[in-house]
Specification:
Length: 157
């Protein structure tokens, strides 16, 4: 299974979660910044995970541009999940849910509930336990992606 973990990151926290998720998903999984996604970068991808920091109650502009560029049905047959990074004391928005909705609208089968990871302060670091939480979340994605059949949507916690 070809796996791609796409992310945008301002201070490295979202990158850390993306790299953790990719490492847990296996040898063929790669964590790639959205800025580094080339033309045709989604070709052959079976599992797509997209992450972004919350920016003004939504994904970053770069993430939103990527999502807006997905054509209806362009992710048909792809399993997907979404996450965001957010400040603990000022939870402002839910970028992960917005990303998940956009991926589903493009035809992806969502295999995990959108997940938010807490950052201490505006620039980080990640809160205690969040890297371990990302590992556990990635394991649930792997199980759901392997177990989901050709019909229906399998969403796990």
């Amino acid at each position: 299974m070809s796996t791609l973990v796409l992310f945008d990151s301002n201070f490295g926290n979202t990158r850390k979660i993306a790299e953790t998720v990719a490492a847990e998903l296996g040898n063929d999984a790669t964590a790639t910044p959205l800025a580094g996604l080339g033309q045709g970068g989604l070709e052959g991808v079976d599992l797509l995970v997209v992450g972004s920091p919350i920016n003004a109650w939504k994904p970053t502009p770069r993430t939103q541009e990527f999502l807006d560029g997905l054509g209806e049905g362009s992710l048909r047959g792809v399993r997907a999940a979404a996450f965001d990074t957010r400040v603990r004391l000022f939870i402002h928005g839910d970028a992960a849910a917005k990303i998940s909705h956009a991926l589903e609208k493009a035809g992806a089968r969502i295999v995990a509930r959108p997940r938010g990871f807490i950052v201490e302060g505006r620039e980080g670091p990640l809160a205690a336990g969040e890297v371990e939480g990302a590992t556990a979340w990635a394991r649930s994605i792997a199980v759901a992606a392997q177990g989901s059949g050709p019909s229906g949507t399998d969403v796990t916690d």
